[in-house]
Amino acid sequence: MDINKLGTIFLNTLSEVISTSTGIHLHIKSQKNDLDFGELVGIMSLEGQKSGMLFISAKVSDVRVLCSNMIGVPLADVTKEDLDDTICELVNMTAGNAKVQLGETDYMFSLSLPFAIKGRDLVLAAKPSADVVTGTLGNEEISIKLKAVY
After folding, report:
1. Along the 150 residues of the chain, how does pLDDT read in single tens digits?
2. Where are the domains of the chain?
3. End-to-end CA distance of the chain
4. Spatial contact of 128 and 21, defined as CB atoms under 8 Å apart
5. What global pTM score does this model have?
6. How many whole angstroms separate alpha carbon 49 and alpha carbon 52?
7. How far, rounded to the nearest angstrom, does the alpha carbon of residue 23 sit from its chain's CA centroid?
8. What are the C-alpha distances in Å from 15 to residues 60, 118, 126, 135, 148?
9. Whether the Cβ atoms of residue 114 and residue 43 lie closer than 8 Å to each other
10. Is 6 in contact with 99 (CB distance < 8 Å)?
């Protein structure tokens, strides 16, 4: 499978997950190979014949909007724990849905538990030989990045 096709599968899956769980529709804004992260990052390990990592990141304010729509509470009532749960759930659902689509390919994988990291100016340094797919989904209000490294 072409690595760009793999990136499109992950991006389309994330878009569908967000649309279904929040009612917010995002489109692919870019598939530029940009490894900078947002302030909140959800991460899962993808273990298989070709193991990798999946990262979904966004600014805290954007995750707050997604969370508010996901759990049906006002923006002001979204807690830090809600933000962590939201980014972890987004990476979990995206990886789970992509796993089904990739089940008959070399990229078939098992999933780890999702976890989140927070901070500013987070950068992923991958070996030059690593296959990296990236993309940004967004609309006029929010933006969310996806990166898969194999």
Report:
1. 778 888 899 999 999 999 999 999 999 998 876 667 889 999 999 999 888 999 999 999 999 999 999 999 999 999 999 999 999 999 999 999 999 999 888 888 999 999 999 988 887 777 888 888 899 999 999 999 999 998
2. 3-149
3. 13
4. no
5. 0.91
6. 10
7. 17
8. 18, 22, 25, 11, 15
9. yes
10. no
The fold of 3-149 is: Chemotaxis protein chec (3.40.1550)
Q: How far is CA 50 from the centre of its chain?
A: 19
Look-up of token digits 């991460």: 43
> Mind spelling out the 3-state secondary structure of the chain?
CCHHHHHHHHHHHHHHHHHHHHCCCCEEEECCCCCECCCEEEEEEEEECCCEEEEEEECHHHHHHHHHHHHCCCHHHCCHHHHHHHHHHHHHHHHHHHHHHCCCCCCCEEECCCEEEECCCCECCCCCCCCEEEEEEECCCCEEEEEEEC
Return the structure tokens found at 29.
């804004």
